[in-house]
Design a protein that fits this description.
Elements lengths: L2 E3 L4 H8 L4 E3 H4 L7 E6 L5 H12 L6 E6 L11 H7 E2 L1 H4 L4 E6 L15 H14 E7 L1 H11 L4 E15 L13 E11 L2 H4 L5 E7 L3 E7 L4 E4 L9 H11 L25 H17 L7
Parallel strand pairs: 1-2, 1-4, 3-4, 3-6, 4-5, 6-7, 7-12
Antiparallel strand pairs: 8-9, 8-10, 10-11, 11-12
Helix pairs in contact: 1-3
């Protein structure tokens, strides 16, 4: 089934080129079906790129999805035009009276900041508190996962000596968990972050369960026992060239970044990286939508 997006959203044409089934608002209006209402809180600086990444995965689901985009009012985006935000995004004040089947909170390249030093931390805290009563299940990604674990469970992050960047092998702690349904025993996930969370801190919280981890990248997937909060520390939504763009950006800025691990063929940055994690990414989103949203949400929100 398709995802329903605004008629003029730039990501729509990109996804249609990839043969992703996207339905615009005018066509969806004629269908007598109750789509899942999914809200995306987009904290990434390149918002249009992240829109495409996430809509690509949501569009692979057999469920019809009505997507809304959310941004923070207390931060001025330097990389996305005000016109784009005004046309396609809402703030928490616009939606706080609504109920949603699911919420996705993206990452943000601000891992080195203390949470309380983030300009929009108070607003993000308001959104996460609101999600407890107005959202069936929330999926947190990368920094969004760290922020969620800190806000909901008091688990702090730790700055790493060296940035974690590349593609890493992960294993399953309990394949019987619904969100892991259909996963291979080993699978690949992109990571790009400067901070980490400690397994020992998570294990102290009885309401949390570690579902998947990596020998090199550490804890990857954590879920609350009631399924209302899912945390993934990597970037399953990334496309084949996202890490390359980050590496080139940091190199141009004179930051002398490390070469992303297991990313370029033969560790040669002149060669084209291969997309090796799409199956896992699609399965993760489909399982979250099916088992933690669709199967749990009321028909009348």
């Amino acid at each position: 089934m398709p995802i329903k997006v605004p008629d003029l959203l730039p990501a729509k044409s990109k996804l249609q080129e990839e043969n992703i089934f996207v339905m615009d608002e005018s066509r969806a209006f004629t269908q007598d079906i109750r789509p899942l209402k999914i809200l995306i809180l987009n904290l990434m600086p390149l918002k249009q790129q992240t829109e495409t990444h996430l809509l690509r995965l949501l569009g692979n689901s057999p469920l019809q999805i009505d997507v809304g985009l959310l941004h923070t009012n207390t931060h001025t985006s330097k990389n996305t035009s005000p016109e784009h935000l005004k046309q396609f995004y809402k703030s928490i004040d616009d939606v706080k009276a609504n109920k949603y089947d699911g919420l996705i909170i993206t990452g943000a390249p601000i891992e080195k900041l203390q949470y309380e030093d983030v300009t929009y931390w108070e607003e993000l805290s308001q959104i996460m508190e609101w999600s407890k009563t107005n959202v069936t299940s929330t999926l947190h990604i990368c920094w969004g996962a760290m922020a969620g674990l800190y806000y909901h469970f008091g688990i702090d992050k730790y700055i790493m000596d060296e940035k974690l960047s590349g593609i890493y092998t992960h294993t399953l702690n309990d394949p019987r968990e619904k969100i892991l349904s259909g996963f291979d025993e080993e699978y690949l996930v992109p990571h790009s972050r400067n901070a980490d969370i400690r397994k020992s801190d998570i294990e102290k919280i009885p309401q949390l369960k570690i579902l998947s981890e990596s020998e090199k990248a550490g804890v990857y997937m954590v879920a609350s026992t009631d399924g209302k909060q899912i945390f993934v520390t990597g970037h399953p939504e990334y496309d084949a060239f996202t890490i390359q763009k980050e590496y080139d950006r940091d190199s141009a800025a004179g930051l002398n970044p490390i070469l992303p691990e297991n990313y370029y063929p033969n560790d040669d940055p002149t060669q084209t990286p291969k997309l090796k994690w799409r199956t896992h990414s699609n399965m993760l989103i489909s399982n979250w939508l099916n088992y933690y949203v669709y199967q749990e949400t009321p028909y009348q929100l």
